[in-house]
Amino acid sequence: MKALAFETATEACSVALLSDGETIELHEIVPRKHTERLLPMVEQLLSEAEISLNQLDFLTFGRGPGAFTGVRIAASAAQGMAFGADLPVVPVSTLAVLAQNAYEQTNATTILSCIDARMSEVYWSVYKPALNGVVEIYQEEEVVAPTDICITNDLSDNIAAVGSGWLTYKDELTAMCSKFIQTYIDDIYPHANQLMKLAISEFEKGNAVSPELALPVYLRDDVAKKSTKPPVC
Question: What is the pLDDT of residues 114-125, one digit of tens each?
Fold first, then answer.
């Protein structure tokens, strides 16, 4: 299997190439320079592996949520490359990529994934590992004020927290969640290596889409449609 993965929804620009069971990754922290770095990083990995785009089985990208510009860059790049090489695409949640990283570092049985969404809000979701070693969503993604986060009481005892939201809103989130959490992950950026693992699982389930359906997910677009009823925990 051969595949290309890239993630640009945060300050990190991360690219990984899978070829015959081996994954190589380039990972840089380049705020506001994703458009300058993404394609050169892709070209570097393809050149090193002596692989062309049309030899790949699929493309995958971090579809957000995250920084609006970064999410659009990844989606546009995925669509352009996939159309040109006639490849299927596997969109993967950026929150899930963070959760996969946390799981691999800690073996936590529950991961609280949280990205700073600006405007005094965070992108938030809860994940649990499946038997195949990749995380699955347990609590739906949402954009929410840190003080409005709802954590159900049926979570495990081994809980990890990951993402930039835990740094930006440390006091608010700690007040809401500290009694649940055993481990805080210092690496707050998503990596294409973990994105690739999630994408392989989805690809094998038949969850790839055609290029025109490789769309970004912003979450904030849906805020006005959300119910004003308080969450049931």
Answer: 999 999 999 999
